[in-house]
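FAQ

Q: What does a record look like?
A: Structure on top, sequence underneath. For example:
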């Protein structure tokens, strides 16, 4: 710690080569260096030092996020909630993951209480929809679909409002935790889910499209529809009809879709640096 404090005191050196050596040493220390750096930021009024500290903290947090996401992918990307928590740290690096997991568990229990083994697939989805969208009043944020804040799990759970991809991912997470075989579908221009014929103890690899029982639109209160209605939607919107618009997607593809949509939101908002960084995560997930 004493060595780190000494390095931090050297951050005001105007010599770029000296700063490069100091910053490289700090970066090797990783996440434990963040708190002392933030404390130093509050204790200085020097503009250059503050800027350098901000850049160092961002680099350290970004590297940690990169490592965690890479490990999640290498492990098969089986836990969608874990993946969603990791990428939500992109905007909120000090996210209280434990608190968010407790909130998701609470929602899951609320649905579980209402379920029983005698229910059909459609009846189970109706219960899920009622608990999430009527009892807990989760809903779609349609004011501006390009606002980056609407993508993140913490904001969705706090405000109960989110965009199609955020609500869709949370919906899939809760359904899967209740052993419902619900998967995401990377539908062009929208994000939906599907109920498949997979058994309760299903793996992350997806089945062909003829294994889908029906489709679900979490953004529209969990409305249920068929393949034919997807075809009509694509034709009306004059979009290409591709297999990905009908097939269950694995968790990596779901999070890649989240990254692509968020990247576009940042571009539309003029935040090009964050859009550039998201390309790194898209490559990892790809």
């Amino acid at each position: 710690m004493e060595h780190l404090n000494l390095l931090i005191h050297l951050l005001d050196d105007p010599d770029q080569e000296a700063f490069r050596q100091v910053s490289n040493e700090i970066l090797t220390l990783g996440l434990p260096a963040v708190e002392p750096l933030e404390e130093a930021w509050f204790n200085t009024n020097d503009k250059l030092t503050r800027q350098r500290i901000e850049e160092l903290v961002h680099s350290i947090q970004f590297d940690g996020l990169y490592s965690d996401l890479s490990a999640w992918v290498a492990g098969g990307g089986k836990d969608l909630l874990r993946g969603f928590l990791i990428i939500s740290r992109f905007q909120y690096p000090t996210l209280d993951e434990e608190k968010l997991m407790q909130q998701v568990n609470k929602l899951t229990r609320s649905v579980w209480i209402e379920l029983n083994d005698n229910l059909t697939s459609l009846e189970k989805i109706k219960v899920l929809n009622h608990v999430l969208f009527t009892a807990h009043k989760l809903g779609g944020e349609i004011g501006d679909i390009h606002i980056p804040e609407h993508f993140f799990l913490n904001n969705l759970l706090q405000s109960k409002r989110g965009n199609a991809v955020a609500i869709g991912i949370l919906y899939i997470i809760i359904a899967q935790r209740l052993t419902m075989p619900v998967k995401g579908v990377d539908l062009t221009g929208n994000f939906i889910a599907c109920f498949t014929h997979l058994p309760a103890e299903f793996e992350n690899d997806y089945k062909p499209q003829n294994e889908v029982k029906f489709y679900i639109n979490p953004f529209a209160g969990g409305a249920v529809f068929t393949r034919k209605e997807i075809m009509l939607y694509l034709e009306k919107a004059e979009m290409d009809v591709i297999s990905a618009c009908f097939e269950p997607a694995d968790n990596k593809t779901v999070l890649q879709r989240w990254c692509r949509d968020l990247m576009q939101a940042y571009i539309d908002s003029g935040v090009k640096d964050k859009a550039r960084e998201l390309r790194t995560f898209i490559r990892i997930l790809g």
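Q: Is there anything notable about this one?
A: The radius of gyration is 22 Å.
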